[in-house]
Records
---
Amino acid sequence: MAIILGIESSCDDTSASIFIDGKISSNVIANQLVHQHYGGVVPELASRVHQQNIVPAVHEAISIAKIHKNDIDAIAFTRGPGLLGSLLVGTSFAKGFALANSLPLIEVNHMQAHILAHFIDEDKPEFPFLCLTVSGGHTQIVLVRNYFDMEVIGQTLDDAAGEAFDKTAKILGLPYPGGPLIDRYAQSGNPGAFKFPEPQIPGLDFSFSGLKTSILYFVRDRLKEDPEFLNQNLADICASVQGRIISILLNKLTKAARQHQIRHIAIAGGVSANSGLRKALEAMADENNWKVFIPKFEYCTDNAAMIAMAGYFKYLNKEFTGQNVAPLSRMPF
């Protein structure tokens, strides 16, 4: 039986998880509310709050799992990609904990861990499968051949889908984090009320910078005509924006599935918690005879359970790292 302690600190959530031979026994996530005052994550503040949260989070994860720190067999941590200061806190804690307790270290790629979150619970995808990973910092289509043989076959050329949601929310005057609020308002709006362009990018790559500019100009021009436009049309705007972002994502995903003749389709990352995306993907599954895999909400956003899960697979292969390891803000597959 292997017991893995997972540590996640890539952005603004401090998380610790205990994995006990096939099952997540605890998954503690400490959020940072301080960033709401600034409309986005402030890297310096994020790293400072990680320092405050990491020890209590680990202590709580161990307590919930009803184990002792001496029971742990290895410690898995996010090496990257992410905010360098935030990663440094998690990496330093993992190295110190491993050194003090004579434990092996396992470095984990944050984006690979999002994909491997599908193996936490039952109804696991079969290899090969496609995974659309969508978050505030990344938008990728990944061909997953096995646990660590993954190839990015499509990605954003500029901004991520999650950033498009958050920047749109800021344009609309919604508080941070705005993505979930757009999803909430969109549920009572008409996605066909307003038309926004779909970028004509060849291949399987994405682009969201032009869409953000289009939304900015649309709101600016409508407010000149009617200062109450936002208040009167907020739900329809959110539904229309969300509908366009989802269509951009799923049109590329459909193209990738046809090119590679794959019917097992997964989504991962923070934006995979979006209810509109989930519903649209399930509808497309019926149309295309796909089998779709969507993680539980708690495993969509940044969490240590996915780090522990990825760490477990590496533990089985004895893929350990040394104490000289350093965090990487950009970490390729």
---
Amino acid sequence: METVAPFIEVIEEIKEAGAEAHKLCFQCGRCDVVCPWNTVRKFSMRKLIREATFGLTEIESEDIWRCTTCGNCPDKCPRGVEQIELGVSLRRLASEYEVFPASVKSARAVRGSLTTEGNPLNEERSKRADWAEGLSVNPFTEGTEVLFFGCCYSSFDPRIKKVAQATARILNKAGVDYGILGTKESCCGESIRKTGAEEVYTGLAKENIKTFIDHGVRKIVVSSPHCYEAFKNEYAAYMVHFEVLHMTQFLAGLIADGRLTLDGTYEKKVTYHDPCYLGRHNDIFEAPRELLQRIPGVDFREISPSGKDSLCCGGGGGRVWMDTPKGERFSDIRLEQARELGATVLATACPYCITMFEDSRLNLEYEEVLEIKDITEIIEQVI
């Protein structure tokens, strides 16, 4: 492979990759102030934007791979610079030149698994529906009211399978007419797209869209905020529109309609972590809190920061597949905040958040003092 110069003049390529808004930046620095990386190490999104403005980008740098696409800086930017689009465009260029730092090698390898098996965990597609064995979960057929799309982690990861199984039991209890597509499902593609693999994302999106249309899917309920983002917002570019609900929204509706009742008690001190792609990206803040506050016995405690200012878990933007050194993990900080609050349960509504938090719980030796739960796992215990 040819040696790539540390800096390449790529201003036109950056624009073509979808990041022309970088020229609006007037270097106010608000992006750096709110970036979670600056709670654990020095990092400057402003610097990356400045370099891109002049078409001088260090594509060998690990910095272009740090962004978790948490949405904090676009939310606070006074000029609409579109920092996430800029970061993704730089990753596309790095991918084109085959320049990947050591910490990114694992994320690069994920692309092959997505292409061959339709999931990032290198698991056999034929086993995608195995999580549902013994749970009376039916295949989705045309005319079924709801498609439950559990996501790759819900299908294959041993910890997150428990979330999908709890969800199925709740839906069965409420008498919901739902089904799954099982082996016909593919990864939504949202996260791999954020690593710069646009072609892989396009293939996955088109495959899912064809499958949904062929099966007459109209309403999709998802457990992952990343699937929500893909199906509701990103797939719209292909001129298709499905009704998409996050599971917390759907369950809140079932309770409001009297189809699901919470009869048990859950007498624990619970706090809630807002996933970036559920909260900042899609403004879903109330449904998860409404569910938790309805549960009898819960001592609900609001963690800080929360809502639009919530701390990122560190797993977005494909970072869930990249190596993050000890001492630079946002998830460690979040668990420490939960402990300082006196919470015994940190609840959330995203498989990536759970994955990151479970790793931190082990690393911090918090196994005996703090539980990590998806909201559905708590709901299941009180129905």
---
Amino acid sequence: MSTVPTLSGITSKVVDTPRLKMHALFSGPENGTPVLFLHGNASSATYWEEIMLKLPAGFRGIAPDLRGYGDTEDKLIDATRGMGDWVDDLVGFMDALKIEKTHVIGHSMGGAVVFGLVGAIGGRILSGTVVNPGSMYGFGGTKDVNGTPCYDDFAGSGGGVVNPDFPKLMAAGDRSTDNPQASPRVVMNGFYFKPPFVPAREEDLLSSLLTEKVGEQKYPGDFVPSGNWPNVAPGKFGPINALSPKYVGDSVEKFVGASSKPFILWIRGDSDLIVSDNSFFDFGTLGKLGYVPGWPGEEIYPPQPMVGQTRNILEQYKAKGGGYEEVVIADTGHTPYVEKPEEFMAAFGKVLK
């Protein structure tokens, strides 16, 4: 079933849903309280296995490969719907497995999908945990805690902002460290985790990264030229366009205004270079540091305050009757549940209880 080897205690199967065939990993008793695990970009369900095996007794871990990733059926992502395809896929997945209510936990891109699920089906979510989540205002192209676009065409976000060598090497199944900027292994070890940390399952996690579906309409997606710096704007296909602020729509309003508001636990690493207020994957940061020429300056295109945006949205959620807690795990990068699983479970376990 799974093209990546699984740990003992994890089972793998394909679930036929109304929208597509979804591959998923499972742990714990079949009649246990469900915990739905959502992976981030350039990864798959594999990343969650260790935490799935650490769930308290009586819980059932369920980790699907999202559309565009892993061993799930290869269908295109309509980026113009923002999180829509992933949210609808997951609702269909829950229905197929007859899951009425579930805890949900999402990492990075998967964290943004958790927010989308709360906005869509809050009454079916027992709790929502987001780990180094992408901002609900989108990735790239916005400039303050309210998500104000830098330009009206959302230049600097979407499929055109990805280093083109990275998906090329992914498609080739490259496992080397030959390209210091774009080798998947170098990107994973340099940015997913805080160096010098290297995970025990480095090879399996790299294999998981390499399962993402690559192509012009897949990862990273298409783009259009822009007269605004850095001269690329979002296209209409693939995950990175789906994460563009261009297609956020009313998802923030739906989350903040959800009629049923599950408790949200927000866990993040203190040394994250991917989702932060000075992200190395954001053109505002890269321009300010002089890595990308022609930066129009702080006024027009500052670094996106990704952490500040998430805190702002969660404060609005709280003001409307929701609850949340922010937990920062020291000395970890973008993936604290891999870097410090015991410390991570201490926080996550409380929410499950």
---
Amino acid sequence: MNVPETIAGIAAGATAGEVIFPTTTEMAIKVQRLLGDPDCSADELIRLVQADPLLATRVVAVANSVLYNRSGQDAANIKSAVSRLGFKTLRVLAAAVVVRQMESMAQTAEHRTMARQLWERTAHVAALAQLIARRVTGQDPDTAFFAGIVHEVGSFYLIARGGDFPGLLEGTDGSLSAWDDGGNAEVGRAVLQQLKVPGAVMEAVESLWAGYLAIPPVSLGDTLLLACQLAPVESPLARLAGSAREGTRVQIDVALDQATLSSILQESEDEVASLIGALYA
């Protein structure tokens, strides 16, 4: 198999609009589009969220997470959950449902296992990105959260298509090196465009693919890079791609002083766990 050509073909199909999402994501995509309408009303949005059990469950779960439920009073319905979260966070959750449901597109048990691991990593990165935005880079936390949710969408799509190309995801270490050599960016860019991801988020993910971390970290891209480096779960494609994490510890040590790093990883442990639990359930 010519892996670079195969990946290029998958990217070309996605660019041409041939991305097929699971039927269960249709409502989440409708919510995303409605949130992009400046005339969107809260009542209309609530009706749409209520029509999808999966999205409704996620909305209430995140509204009652440690990060958003400062009062300790649980939101018991969609209206109060939407009011607490706001439209920006709802857009993030709609994207989370779309990404999570891409897991169901995997065609083999092995590929579904890979997709589940990738989702777990995604949840960690999203939660950490939000915390880093608040405590280090000064970026909008909700936008950072959104970037964390969608940053691996190309990998999800590659896993979903893996069954159509036997051997693509069953190779040895480094057999998928073309993924790190531009394939991830090529496929990811195509799928993100189909999802109509905002320009700021697209730029941040592009920075992640470029791999350049500014010192001190200040941008949304820096936020995403640090979150990816701190995430305890590795991408299931990393071994196949031959991805190396050498220098990661050095980058973190230069970008964050030990006190700040300890604060993020220890003092915010409950917030991260709560968000991951709400998104991953």
